[in-house]
Amino acid sequence: MTTSQNPAAPEVKEEYFLDVPTGVEAETEDEDIPEIERPWNPEQIRVNTKQFSLRNVLDMIDDVSLELAPDFQRGRVWKHVQKSRLIESVLLQIPLPAFYFAEDADGFMRVVDGLQRLSTIHDFVRGGDEKGFALKGLEYLQGTVEGKRFDDLPAPWKRRINNAQIMTHVIDPTTPPDVMYDIFKRINTGGTPLNAQEIRHCMSRDRSRSILKAMTSTGAFNDATNGLGGHTRMNDREMALRFAAFWLHGAEGYAEFGSMDAFLQRTTTMLDDPNAVDDSVVGSLEKSFQRAMENSWIVFGDQAFRKWPQGVESGKYPINRALFEAWAITLCDFEPRDLARRATAIVAKARALMAIDYRYLDAITSSTGDTRRVMYRFEATAEAAEAGR
Hints:
The protein is α/β, with parallel strands linked by helices. It has 2 domains: 14-19 and 195-384, no CATH class; 42-187, no CATH class. It is 48% helix and 9% strand. The chain has helices at 54-62, 80-91, 115-126, 142-145, 155-163, 177-187, 196-203, 206-215, 219-224, 235-253, 260-272, 279-300, 321-331, 336-356, 358-363, 371-384, and strands at residues 14-17, 20-25, 47-53, 66-67, 99-103, 109-113, 165-171. Helix 12 crosses helix 13 (321-331) and helix 12 crosses helix 14 (336-356). The protein is elongated. It comes from Streptomyces californicus. This is DUF262 domain-containing protein.
C-alpha cells in the first residue's frame, strides 16, 4: 500500500437541507462522469400521458390505488404559506406542472414526481395528517378565502378544486426498473429536487422500505451514527442499502455495475422480490448489520464512520458514506471481544490511513463510486481491521 505524507486535515463539506446541517458529509463526483454509463434501448422507454381530475386523483389516494410513498418525511416539509399558495393557484385555475406516476403490472401506481403537491392538496381537501389546514399568506385571494379551510369554502370554490384537471405522465410497467429510475432522475427538477435515495424510496415497494427501516431503527444503528435513524433526507436508509448491496454482492461484485446508482437500484429491486432475497436471507442481513453497528461502536465510539485523521483531536466530522460501507462490511464478521482487545491498534491504523494515504483519502472523498476507488478503500479498510493481531 503506497502512502504519502499529508499532515493537513481533510476538507469536509457537510450536506445541508433547508439551511440545516444533515450530519452527513456531502459526496462529490467528477463532472465529466457521464450520467448514463450504458445506452438504453429507446423501445424500452414507455411513458403514457393521461389527464385526471383532482377529485379522481384524491379518490385514488384514498383507496390506495395511488401511493404517496409512505414514511417519506421529506415530501411534507413545505411551509404553510407554500401550501396555501399552491391551493390558491388551483383556485385561480393556473395549470399545475405535469405529474409523473409509475405503474406496476397490477395497475397500482405510485407518485414519483409531484409528491409534495399532491400531499398538500390531499391534506387540504381530505384532511390528511393535519386535519385540513387554513389558507394563509395568499397573494390574490386574501379577501375571498384567506383563513378558510376546505370545508369553509363556498360550493363553487370546492368544485373548482375537485374538477381541476392535471396532466400526468405514467411510466408503463413494462419499462425496466433501471430505465424507470433514470427517467425520474432526468425529470426530477422541481423546486427542491429529490436525492437518489428519495427517488428509490418513491419507486420501490413496501418490502424493501420495511427492511431498510428495520435496519435503521435499532439502538445499535443510532448509537453508531449519533441518532441518524429517521433522517430527513433518508441518508440512513441509503447507508443501510449500501450495506445490503455490498453484503449481497461483495465488493468484487460492484465492478459488474460500474456505478453506485445502478448498484443500489438493482439491490432495491432484489430486496423487493422475495424470490431474489428470501426472508431467511433478510434475517441474516439484518443480524449482520446489527453486528456491524455494535462492532463499529466498540472500535470507534462516537467517531464511527467519520474522518478522524491523525492530528485532529477535537470535534467530529459528519458521517461519511464511503467509510460507512467499508467499515460496516469489514467489521460485521468479527467477534466483539477480539475487536475490543485490538480497538486501539485498529483506530491508530485507520487514522493513519486518513492522514498519510492520499489514495485512501481520495477514495472516501470524491468520485467514491469509481470502481478502483471502491476496491481500494475496501482493501485498505480490511487491512486496517487486522491491526494488533
